[in-house]
Structures are given as structure tokens and as C-alpha cells.
Design a protein that fits this description.
Distance between the termini: 59 Å
Number of domains: 2
Number of strands: 5
Radius of gyration: 20 Å
Helix content: 55-70%
Structural class: alpha+beta
CATH superfamily of the largest domain: Beta Polymerase, domain 2
Largest sheet: 5 strands, mixed
Shape: globular
Number of helices: 14
Strand order of the largest sheet: 3-4-2-1-5
Strand content: 5-15%
Length: 303
Amino acid sequence: MDSRAALQGLVAAELKQPVAPPVIAMAEAVRARHPQGTLAVLFYGSCLRKPETLLADSVLDFYLLVENYTAAYGAALLAFANKLLPPNVFYLELPHEGGTLRCKYAVLSLDDFLAGTARRTLNVSIWARFSQQARLVWCRDAEIAARVAEGCTEAVLTMLGNVVQLLPAEATADQLWQRAFLETYAAELRSEGAERAAELVALDVDRFRRVTGPALAELHTTPLEDAAHCAATWRRRRRVGKLLNLARLAKAAFTFQGGVDYVLWKVRRHSGVELQVTDWQRRHPILSAPVLAWRLYRRGAFR
């Protein structure tokens, strides 16, 4: 078996691993929101490592992969926004066994997902996330599952291929992944630093080490860019990535459905302050934000 096939086999096996019933229930609720053209539901992020008993007090993270945006929405504005600056992000709550499950999910076409894992893609958002473990909770068919596994495999190769020349040849798998996370954090509007990168690697260190061998073997089958070129590309990624993050934040003010409920849940979780909102305020988050912020401030939600 060649190195790429070995790596893809490892990634495909990870994607097939079972998930807890609350994750399945939430994935089904996400899929039900977009019944036309849905291809796959991916579960990823920190909740992947949490026990089932803690999921009700967390926000689960999903990617909904679709055939095209028009079919996914049936709404021209949302489809246009998703195509112009993918992905669109939504918040969803689901009553479940006497409690409430919560999630954020991003909508992305399969083509955009695969393009986002490619090594020359300046935007790190997709390949940084899916170079880590993920679960394919639902998939339309085996062909789509294979393409998703191919994309996640490419994400691993992209993550390591963009840092391997920046470190000495004797660098360990742990060092390679820590450097990769540091670089990707710096290319987005994030506050994580060296400690968080090391912590993230330590949380799944056996997996990172497991995929590094075949990934490096595959990378060395073709010439790699030199260190100077790699460093210059990372400088470009930092400029492009931060601009894209700012643009997505601006877009989210208009497309992040359920954003008001998400923010209020976060406030309630951290401060204990609960605030009731109207349907009008949910539909007009920008107009209602100053009033809601003032009410939260008066009730001691923040100082």
C-alpha cells in the first residue's frame, strides 16, 4: 500500500467511528433544516473528545456539506452569501431527553470543502480544522464518503506540508503539529498561542503521531518548497486570513440565524443572567443589539 492510501485508510477509519446518540440527534436536526441537496454531515471540534454526559452543556460543531447552495436554501440571499464568502454559519437548539442540545453548523458545498483542503489554498479555515479528527455522522452514499475522506486526507498533507520545511529534519511529530497550529492560529482572528497549540496536540497525541509517518512519506514523494518560500506564504496567509475573518464577521451579522439565542446562552452560562427576547429581536439582531446589551449590562451580565 502506498503512503497516501495508508493515510487515507487511517482518516477514513476515523470518520467511520461511532458518535453518541445526542450527536446523531443533532446531526439529524441540522440535516432536516436543509432537506434538498445535503450530501454529508461532519462532526468536529472539542466536543469530539467530551463524554456524552457533558454534551448538553456544550455547543456541538458541525459542517453540513451540500451539493449546491441554491438547493440547500431555496433562498437567493442566503445562497448568494454562502457562495460569495463561504461558509454560512447557523445556531440551532434541540429539545432532547428533557434537556436542550445546542450546536453551530456551517454550510459548505462539497466542492468548496475539497478546494479548502488543498495545499495552495491561502485560507486556513478548512484544512486546519479537518486535519484533526472528525466524524462522518451521516453521508448520502459511499462515493461521497470517499470524497470526504479524500478531503480530510488532503487537509493533513496540507497542514504538515506547509510547515515541514520550517523545522529541522529531526523535528518530532509533536513539534510539527504544534508549529502547524501556531501558524494557523496566527492566520485567523484567534487568541490562542503556544500553550494552546501544545495542549491541542497533547489531547490527541497518539493520533497526530499515527498520521505523521505516512503523511511525511507522501509529502517527500514530490519536491517541497524551501523554508524562505514557506515563510513568505505564511505571511501572505496571515494578511488574507484576517481580512477574510473580518469579512465573515460582517456577513454573519446578516446571515447567522439564531445568533441572538447563541449569545444569550453564552451570557447565561458564564454569568447566570437570563434575558427574554422577542421574535422581532431575533429577526433583527443588529437593530436590537444596543438595547439587549444595555439590559444585560444593567443586570450585571458584564462590566
